[in-house]
Amino acid sequence: MLKTFHVRTDHHDQMIDVTSQVQDWVREEGVKDGVVIVSSMHTTAGLTVNENADPDVKTDMLRRFREVYPWNHTEDKHAEGNTAAHMKTSTVGHAQTLIVEDGHLVLGTWQGLYFCEFDGPRSRKFVAKVL
Question: What's the pTM value of the predicted model, to 2 decimals?
């Protein structure tokens, strides 16, 4: 079973907690045990698992990404000018693998699944599949 999720981003760089969307789908599908693979369908947006308790973590991560990968670096050759977004996506990764046990995503106390936008705002999508 493959599920497509849609995400609308509001900012150029943004991390959106999508944990509950995936958890709700797992519950609706009646998955008890297994593995869920989630994958971004974009080269300038990825997925990561990170802290979901303190919003400053997202703020700090996005700030540090901007420091490491500045936008429109003078030496970039990519015609669209968004090499930084490609670099950020390659850093966080395009996919995550999550364990499902007894119908629940297995995540740590402070962990959540984030859709990471690096070239927005845009309409985006990611897919999930249970194995």
Answer: 0.95
Strand partners, 126: 5, 40
Give the total number of structural domains in the chain.
1
Contact 120, 9 (CB under 8 A): yes
Considering the chain, what percentage of its residues have pLDDT values greater than 70? 100
Mean of per-residue pLDDT scores for the chain: 95
The token duo for 36 is 């869920």
Q: Which domain holds residue 33?
A: 2-130
Q: What digits encode the pLDDT tens for the residues 61-93?
A: 999 999 999 987 778 788 777 899 999 999 999
Q: How far apart are CA 16 and CA 91, in angstroms?
A: 17
Q: What is the C-alpha R_g of the chain?
A: 15
In sequence order, which residues have a C-beta less than 8 Å from that of residue 65 and are 6 or more positions away?
A: 13, 88, 91, 118
> What is the CATH classification number for the domain harbouring 27?
2.60.120.460
